[in-house]
Amino acid sequence: MDTTTRTLIEVRNLEARYGDTPILENVTMDVAAGEILAIIGGSGCGKTTLLKHLVGLNRPYGGSITIDGIDISNGDERSFARALRKIGILFQGGALFGSMTIAENVALPLQAYTDLTPSAIATLVRMKLCSVDLGGYENHLPSELSGGMIKRAALARSLALNPEILFLDEPTAGLDPVISAEIEELILRINHQFRTTMVIITHSLNIIFDVAHRVVMLDKSAKGVVAQGDPKALQTSSPNAVVRQFFNRQANLSKRSTWQA
Q1: What does the DSSP assignment read for 211-251?
Q2: For 185-227, how does the pLDDT look when each residue is reduced to its tens digit (9 = 90+)?
Q3: C-alpha span between 165 and 64 (Å, rounded)
Q4: Which domains does the chain have, with CATH numbers?
Q5: Which residues contact 175 (CB under 8 A, 6 or more apart)?
Q6: Residues 218-255: pLDDT tens digits?
Q7: Which one, of 84, 31, 5, lies nearest residue 212 by Cα?
Q8: Other Cβ atoms closer than 10 A to 47
Q9: pTM of the predicted protein model
């Protein structure tokens, strides 16, 4: 990745709370244009909370978040809407509407946010589905698809408006190793072809080591970031014992699941 590219996401001294309970404190991080960043950490460390703040679902208790120079934490509604047009979101379960066909699901953002004709939308929907290897499945319902196909259909919907930034919440969760590898290859292909910036919440070591350019690790006790950088370097050379233990524990869990399979 070209490290001279502009910073697309800036988080400065972010504080997040649920009621009076602090979840994250003093989180500062950047995401460069075209980068694939993985947000990692143990259960309850605040990964999902951070994601919700990054996409504007939650407003910070303190600090700021800017998307391509637009302050989504303190800006007005018009600025917030402009920032939202720059992002797409792949939810963990896909979040497809079960009563609608795959094509109808993918068409929803185009119908809501563009003035395109129905025929133009239909053409774009076919293109998006082909880009995730689902050409010919336009008229299928989500119930007729496998778990991996549902993930790809949801990915096509998240790409409908050609977002600069794509947020992915556990994109390979619940999938077998073969399908997971296909999703990982698709993520890399989209990043390479379109230079889409990606922020991925994940526990997958394959994504951490083979897909992500860089990781940000959160820790529940620290209520924030305990490490940032190249995952391979952090695994072996981090001065923080919590960081090294996380990687080693994840590697052992991965081996154990492979043996059980």
Answers
A1: I-SEEEEEETTTTEEEEEE-HHHHHHH-S-HHHHHHHHHHH
A2: 999 999 999 999 999 999 898 999 999 999 999 999 999 999 9
A3: 18
A4: 7-86+163-260 (3.40.50.300), 99-161 (no CATH)
A5: 147, 148, 151, 183
A6: 999 999 999 999 999 998 888 888 888 888 776 555 55
A7: 31
A8: 23
A9: 0.89
